Amino acid sequence: MTTPMNPQMYRFAFFGTAPLAQEVLDALEAKGLVPSLIVAGKDRLARDKSIVFPVEKAWATARGIPVVQPEAITPEFIDELKTQEWDAFVVASYGKILPKALLEIPKRGTINMHPSLLPKLRGPSPIRSAILNDERETGVSVMLLDEKMDHGPLIGQRKVDVADWPPHGATLDALLAREGGELLAEVLPQWLAGEIAVVEQDHSQATYCKIFLKEEGELDLNADAYQNLLKIRAFEGWPGTFALFERGDQRLRVVILDAHIEGKKLVIDTVKPEGKGAMPYADFLRSGPTPMRA
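The chain above was modelled as a monomer; its predicted structure follows.
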């Protein structure tokens, strides 16, 4: 039975960035769980020189919640956090290593929402790696953070059904962020009330994922169609996928935006040739290019 929680009973800080932050914050807010502080990513400069706020900063500002955007987790930043009383820190895709001195500040420690069924897919790219590896059984975990990467004991876990496989990367981002936020909102009150016991992960079953590099997005359009589709879906947004074409003595680098499978054939739907906007692949082919082998 979930303990009724007065939103004013506990103070927690939220550490998070896109693509998970807003969905998780929305799910917490829906249960009356509003952080007292948000630790956000940095602002960025758009091409038109305007300042673009990260989504978690915009979310906090709209609600009058204090925001800090540290360049790094320094001893000075940790000391500043220590000047206040905290019941917990909550983390979702923050992207910086949190040292032990920070993790241990709150009374109930630091908990993290990780979008995989831990101990599977520990590391920085669990959602997109699940697609790339064709791992159809996926889900979300909430754990107590320790000093090792995604190693801490589990507080809660939930399997998530994905209707259409392979999904687009952004679609699975949003689904697991929402499901993870709902799980976090369910277990956080119980955890803060001391009603949940942690369960150690089975470390012998651990698998790992990595940061993707831009050059990994190159496709050989003569290779296995399904593996190419997995890469297109997994690398949507970043690092993106591309194929090389030739037209006469020209070499063309073309971003592959979307595709599907018909029978055993990869059918490309939308592309973006270098220096041009997105267009149907059929329109691109009318200019006479042919694929090169990667």
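The CA atoms of residues 72 and 96 lie 8 Å apart.
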